[in-house]
Specification:
276 residues, alpha/beta, Rossmann fold, globular
């Protein structure tokens, strides 16, 4: 684990893969969702690090990064990404983001000039035209039983992000995810600051300015950010004359479809990145 200063905030990151001083390997940076640490990408990192230099970072407020008092903004978190890539002397990177990480990825591609391609998973352009998180999911994610212990709180909050079948049949993995989250989740004040940054995010009027190849993947049964958001995002980006945009749905996929269907998602990401 390495750190870099981003405007007074310490951002923790790690790299995997065949990086060399001559930077012969292309770089892929992964950006995770609200409250989650960099463990979230362990399946994708393992699949891609034989060919790519993989960069994993903890968003501000999460994991080994500083958790300053809010407010936070998606633009600040995009600047944190640039601080990491600058420290690594990376001139170009494929940027992969899920959920809040997909919002950071959009902002990063709009504000900085290192992006080679975008892969946006289970995310949204935000703003009034986006399809909101259903009220019952919001309640489940932010209101927990008073008598729940730490493990029960995490399990309770994350259930809408998974399919019922996965949650009930893969208790071994769910328990490991709870362990990882206990070790690295954003504390409550930082989680709130991240949530407020997500609520304030709106890139819809800017997306036509994107001119990099973009892959958008979304589960059809996403109970956190409904699948319609993926299509809206693709439509807005496609207005750019030079943008190549692909939108694909994962049938029955949850918000965490890239964990539940990791093999298929890894193969799709590899194919996309190899052909950019």
């Amino acid at each position: 684990m390495i750190t870099v200063d981003s405007d007074g905030v310490t951002i923790a990151y790690e790299t995997r893969g065949p990086a060399t001083p001559e930077r012969n390997a292309e770089t892929v940076v992964f950006l995770e969702g609200l409250g989650y640490g960099r463990w979230m990408w362990r399946w994708q990192a393992a699949a891609l690090s034989s060919r790519y230099e993989v960069v994993l970072l903890d968003n501000r407020g999460t994991g080994d990064s500083d958790a300053p008092d809010g407010p936070y903004s998606i633009a600040q978190m995009a600047a944190d990404v640039d601080a990491v890539l600058s420290a690594l002397d990376v001139d170009e990177a494929h940027v992969v983001g899920a959920s809040m990480g997909g919002m950071i990825a959009q902002r990063y591609a709009l504000d900085f000039d290192r992006t080679t391609s975008l892969s946006l998973l289970c995310t949204s352009h935000g703003g009034p035209e986006a399809v909101p998180t259903p009220p019952e999911t919001k309640q489940r994610m932010f209101d927990v039983p008073d008598d729940a212990d730490e493990r029960e709180v995490i399990r309770y909050k994350m259930r809408p992000a998974m399919t019922d079948a996965f949650f009930e049949s893969r208790d071994d993995l769910v328990s490991r995810i709870v362990d990882w989250r206990l070790a690295s989740d954003a504390p409550e004040h930082a989680r709130t600051a991240q949530a407020e940054a997500v609520a304030a995010f709106d890139s819809s009027d800017e997306l036509a300015a994107l001119d990099v190849p973009t892959l958008i993947l979304h589960g059809t049964e996403d109970r956190v950010l409904p699948v319609e958001n993926g299509q809206l995002l693709a439509d807005e980006i496609a207005e750019a004359a030079d943008a190549a945009v692909v939108f694909e749905e994962y049938d029955g996929g949850s918000h965490l479809f890239f964990i539940e269907q990791a093999g298929a998602v890894n193969d799709r990401l590899a194919t996309f990145l190899n052909n950019v």
